[in-house]
UniProtKB/TrEMBL annotation:
<dbReference type="InterPro" id="IPR050763">
    <property type="entry name" value="ABC_transporter_ATP-binding"/>
</dbReference>
<dbReference type="InterPro" id="IPR003593">
    <property type="entry name" value="AAA+_ATPase"/>
</dbReference>
<dbReference type="InterPro" id="IPR027417">
    <property type="entry name" value="P-loop_NTPase"/>
</dbReference>
<protein>
    <submittedName>
        <fullName>ABC-2 type transport system ATP-binding protein</fullName>
    </submittedName>
</protein>
<dbReference type="Pfam" id="PF00005">
    <property type="entry name" value="ABC_tran"/>
</dbReference>
<dbReference type="GO" id="GO:0005524">
    <property type="term" value="F:ATP binding"/>
</dbReference>
<keyword id="KW-1003">Cell membrane</keyword>
<dbReference type="GO" id="GO:0016887">
    <property type="term" value="F:ATP hydrolysis activity"/>
</dbReference>
<keyword id="KW-0067">ATP-binding</keyword>
<keyword id="KW-0813">Transport</keyword>
<keyword id="KW-0046">Antibiotic resistance</keyword>
<feature type="domain" description="ABC transporter">
    <location>
        <begin position="6"/>
        <end position="229"/>
    </location>
</feature>
<keyword id="KW-1278">Translocase</keyword>
<dbReference type="InterPro" id="IPR003439">
    <property type="entry name" value="ABC_transporter-like_ATP-bd"/>
</dbReference>
<keyword id="KW-0547">Nucleotide-binding</keyword>
<dbReference type="GO" id="GO:0046677">
    <property type="term" value="P:response to antibiotic"/>
</dbReference>
<keyword id="KW-0472">Membrane</keyword>
């Protein structure tokens, strides 16, 4: 179908006198991975919970697979992974997954799914005795076992070790290949850059940028190096080609943007030598999604 898996138009959500979501508009395509990024308190969790049907909007329109989130028929078509909760503490891992599978007409095989996510050895372990990462993997398994058309993943790799994180990434990639729409929130910029077809960055309840990871980061390359803090970058800029930019972020870490070519590289290293500075860890890289995220949302703690 050509219609989006999720369509949000002018969404508003208030908590008392505070507006968490302020006229937000976004869409997520079917059969694609859409990553929603934002600082703490940006409104992304409220937006996702409204789409999942757990909260009611104060304004705007939300459609999930063409239906309002409250439509009961969505339960068999949409998978939801919560950050925490929803599982009885005493239930055993394997028992819970088999129970969840019985709510669907064509579920995935619980044992195979547990094996894929490294839970086989914990099949008889009560939920409360699972580690945080194991509980996270069980929640992921429960979200996808019903072969959903759309799945919401809220911080799917939070607390996972590298092996489990890569297993989760592989599962998300397979969901996309199978035509499942995936909407995920994450604080890992490398995860969004690796998995997402479309990225939506929100801040203070509004969309501040969206597009593919490549379109957001651009083809522009950067020259990066480390040196003592507080170099006189204004002086360096006078020696660089017109249109270049230089910044120190964080202290002692320098980024030069512009037409990164041998001439620019020679100019920077010669200037550092004239200043008696050694440019450590000098490298040429492209701008990352984390760079874009910080430029748009700021560096202050929330």
């Amino acid at each position: 179908m050509d219609s989006p898996a999720v369509e949000v138009i002018d969404l508003v959500k208030r908590y008392g006198g505070a507006t968490a979501v302020d006229g937000l508009t976004l869409s997520a395509a079917r059969g694609a991975v859409t990553a929603i990024l934002g600082p703490n308190g940006a409104g992304k969790t409220s937006t996702i919970e409204i789409c999942e049907g757990f909260r009611e909007a104060d304004g705007g329109t939300v459609r999930v697979l063409g239906l309002p989130p409250s439509d009961g028929s969505l339960r068999a078509r949409v998978g939801v992974m919560l950050q925490a909760g929803g599982v009885p503490p005493a239930v055993r891992c394997g028992e819970w997954l088999r129970l969840v599978s019985r709510f669907y007409a064509r579920p995935l095989a619980p044992d195979a799914l547990m094996a894929r996510l490294g839970l086989t050895d914990h099949a008889r372990t009560p939920y409360r005795r699972l580690s945080g990462g194991q509980q996270q993997r069980l929640s992921l398994a429960a979200a996808v076992i019903g072969r959903p058309e759309l799945v919401f993943l809220d911080e799917p790799t939070a607390g996972l070790d590298p092996q489990a994180r890569h297993a989760c990434w592989d599962l998300v990639a397979d969901l996309r290949t199978a035509g499942v729409g995936v909407v995920l929130t994450t604080h890992h910029m490398d995860e969004a850059e690796r998995l997402a077809d479309h990225v939506v960055i929100i801040d203070r309840g509004r969309v501040v940028a969206e597009g593919s990871p490549a379109s957001l980061t651009g083809a522009e390359r950067q020259l990066r190096f480390r040196a003592r803090p507080g170099l006189a970058l204004e002086e360096l800029l006078t020696a660089l080609p017109t249109g270049s930019a230089a910044k120190e972020s964080p202290a002692g870490h320098y980024i030069i943007e512009g037409q990164v070519d041998p001439e620019l590289l020679a100019t920077v290293t010669a200037w550092c030598a004239a200043e008696g500075v050694t440019a450590d860890d000098l490298s040429i890289e492209r701008r990352t999604l984390e760079d874009v995220f910080l430029e748009l949302t700021g560096r202050e703690l929330r």
